[in-house]
Amino acid sequence: MPFCSLSTVNFRNLADATIDLFAREVFFTGENGQGKSNLLEALYFSSYGASFRTHLDGEMIRNGEGGMSVRTLYKGADDEGHTSFISLEGSRKKMERDGKMIRDRKDLVSAMPCVLYSHDDLDFAKGAPERKRFFVDQTLSMYDVLYIDLMRRYKRILKSRNLCLKEHNLALLDSYDLQLVQNGLEIQKRRKMAIFKFRDIFSRLYGEVSGLTGVTIRYLPSWKKARPDSAEEGIAAASNLPSVDDVLARLRDMRPVDEKMGTTMTGPHRDRIEFEKDGVPFIPLASMGQRRLVALVLRTAQAVYFTEETRRRPVLLMDDVLLELDPGKRERMTALLPDYEQLFCTFLPGEPWRNYIRSETKVYEIQAGSWKPVP
């Protein structure tokens, strides 16, 4: 099992103690507000060096304390035991792996890849375009560290270009435009190829759980080729991306608008990802239950896609999400969970978690940040 144990100090309301996680399935049950989600957050934090609930690291520090730490013992892809340690002292973050300092949290990503199911995933179905782009970028970043570097580089160039536009300093735009286009087209290429593979997984899973066929994902890049060579997508579609010169010309034509708005109005940061059924927008007409199911299936498809790309199984973190489904869909969704390295689930006391346990499943009752085994 990847996570063998978790030790926390001053992490939210969790006890300063070590919890044994050596099991393929670990369930946390308890009332709301007792610390179930905090345990999942601590695991996620140890895997990615960031929280899934806040952009402010300081919010994870227990009230009244000056710092916190999370330590995990885990088994790596090499089947050897490893340790991860992350601490916060005020605003200073320290990350270690096997006792050696890590300066970039991207170096944590490949060690314990986690797929998180949470209520906020609904944003990926019905939220703003940037949330959908985030999901696609996260999916790629789980296995491709170079994509993380590519996105960071693009964002730095975009920030510099936008500053020139706001200050009406147009002399540097030609230089920034070339860098923006070169990096931006590579982002679009990787997004397009990933979604081509991903959408088949998603469509199949959504149909099996919901009974609806024809629900799929469509990628709408901001920079398009004026006359595509063919209707093909995926690997063949790389040739259907516009050329560097074509996009540079478009950026020059858009400069008056960009300068007026004080920001770059085209590029991968404006790409859209939409859900369709039989070629018609799906989300505006879908019920709330159908939208929630889209979010859940997206996460399952993300796990399946990760395994297909890497031949590795992820850790699944499921935060009270099965409760949102009716019994029939819940049963089908559970049956379609991807092959995982380890599964963590949170449940409210009245939920039928005993229906999902296996002979070696660990179950803990969580109360006021502390835990005790449930026989």
Molecular structure report:
It contains 8 helices and 15 strands. The chain is α/β, with parallel strands linked by helices and 375 residues long. α4 (145-166) crosses α5. The protein has a 6-stranded antiparallel beta sheet, covered by helices on one side. A 6-stranded mixed beta sheet has the order 8-12-13-3-14-15, with helices on both faces. 38% of the residues lie in helices and 22% in strands. The two termini are 21 Å apart. It has helices at 36-48, 122-126, 129-141, 145-166, 173-210, 244-261, 288-310, 327-335, and strands at residues 3-9, 18-20, 25-29, 67-75, 81-89, 92-97, 100-102, 114-117, 215-220, 272-277, 280-281, 315-319, 342-347, 362-367, 370-373.
How would you summarize the topology of this molecule?
Blueprint: E1 3-9, E2 18-20, E3 25-29, H1 36-48, E4 67-75, E5 81-89, E6 92-97, E7 100-102, E8 114-117, H2 122-126, H3 129-141, H4 145-166, H5 173-210, E9 215-220, H6 244-261, E10 272-277, E11 280-281, H7 288-310, E12 315-319, H8 327-335, E13 342-347, E14 362-367, E15 370-373
Parallel strand pairs: 3-13, 3-14, 8-12, 12-13
Antiparallel strand pairs: 1-2, 1-4, 4-5, 5-6, 6-7, 9-10, 10-11, 14-15
Helix pairs in contact: 4-5, 5-6, 5-7
